[in-house]
Write a structure and sequence with these properties.
Blueprint: H1 12-48, H2 56-87, H3 92-116, E1 123-125, H4 130-142, E2 148-152, E3 163-166, E4 173-177, H5 178-183, H6 186-201, H7 204-226, H8 230-235, H9 243-253, H10 255-282, H11 286-300, H12 308-314, H13 320-334
Parallel strand pairs: 2-4
Antiparallel strand pairs: 1-2, 3-4
Length: 335
């Protein structure tokens, strides 16, 4: 880093440029290292079990798009964070950094389904028919406003299936993978959609934003102890100071704490999945939801069971057995 001038004592504008160049170079190197594993995962493992539908041309285009999107995001995030560190002082740097980062999280939650996802997939309107009528009834039954029902051409890349709800209020839309429609009967799709609407009713998105805000405040509070502490710089063999160097080294030092924070976050994310399943049960979808999950796990070859600690730290969704047991319990409670 020193030979590249990335740790030289320069004004903050130079620090921003050096930080961006370094981040691009590091990301490019990591992408090259991960590329063989991505190729093996897509064209060997996924192909072996009949999931892969991606052509080499699509794979290359997707990798290029991912890199470009990352570079655009870096071009916004890095200057913003370093500028805030430069102009803020004392305890205000923690609140300002956390507020700005939370704002970025909210903006990204809006941009991902509206701008970034369409770079890789094509949205089309769900055709009029039994399924669309049934989904609109689910929205009316749960009192969730749905403006659009879209279909994503996921089958061009994989046979895996999924569904999600994006947007807020009059911009909210239900998005179904075409593989979900092809692989599941209408009652199962409606159960999955009702589950997703449950996330809206329980305000899980806002809860996740709140959790992200709290974790960011914790992270930047710890960063405040690192910023300006030259002993940290010197312990890694550097002599010149820069805000980016403090930030970069801090991300490495923070990893053990990040693991604990991730564990707590996963707890709330998994709890949200249980709540959404229970929501579907209360609307009469217990059996279709169970059938849909079994069908989904069978087709996706998902894990039936997993080590509890590993699953709690790495799986955003509970295992199939855990979810089926929770659905049965919710059904008994309702009765």
């Amino acid at each position: 880093m020193s030979s590249l001038g990335l740790c030289s004592d320069q004004p903050y504008r130079n620090d921003i440029m050096q930080a961006y160049i370094f981040t691009v170079m590091l990301s490019f190197i990591e992408a090259l290292i991960n590329l063989p594993f991505s190729i093996y995962s897509t064209f060997v493992l996924e192909e072996k079990y009949g999931f892969n539908k991606t052509t080499p041309g699509t794979f290359i285009c997707d990798e290029i798009k991912k890199f470009i999107v990352a570079m655009v995001l870096f071009a916004v995030i890095i200057p913003l964070l370093l500028w805030i560190i430069h102009v803020s002082g004392g305890p205000t740097v923690v609140i300002t950094l956390a507020a700005a980062s939370t704002g970025l999280v909210i903006i990204l939650s809006i941009l991902i389904p509206t701008v970034i996802v369409p770079l890789f997939y094509t949205y089309t309107d769900l055709e009029d028919g039994e399924l669309k009528t049934a989904i609109l009834k689910e929205a009316e039954k749960t009192d969730v406003q749905v403006a659009e029902i879209k279909v994503i051409d996921g089958s061009k890349r994989s046979s895996h299936s999924n569904a999600f709800v994006s947007g807020f209020g009059s911009w909210r839309k239900v998005v179904l993978f075409d593989t979900l429609i092809a692989q599941h009967p209408v009652p199962e799709v409606c159960a999955v959609v009702n589950h997703e609407l449950g996330h809206v009713v329980h305000k899980h998105i806002f809860q996740q934003i709140l959790m992200s805000s709290l974790s960011l405040i914790l992270m930047f509070s710890c960063f405040a102890f690192t910023l300006g502490n030259k002993a940290v710089i010197e312990s890694f063999g550097f002599s010149n100071e820069s805000n980016f160097l403090y930030l970069f080294l801090f991300t490495k030092l923070y990893m053990p704490v990040s693991t604990i924070v991730n564990f707590v976050s996963m707890f709330f994310i998994r709890r949200a999945e249980y709540q959404a399943d229970a929501f579907a049960v209360t609307h009469g979808h217990a059996q279709p939801l169970k059938d849909g999950l079994i069908n989904l796990f069978k087709r996706n070859k998902g894990p039936l069971v997993a080590d509890p600690m590993y699953s709690a730290l790495n799986h955003s969704h509970p295992t199939l057995v855990e979810r089926l047991q929770a659905i049965d319990q919710a059904t008994k409670t309702q009765q």
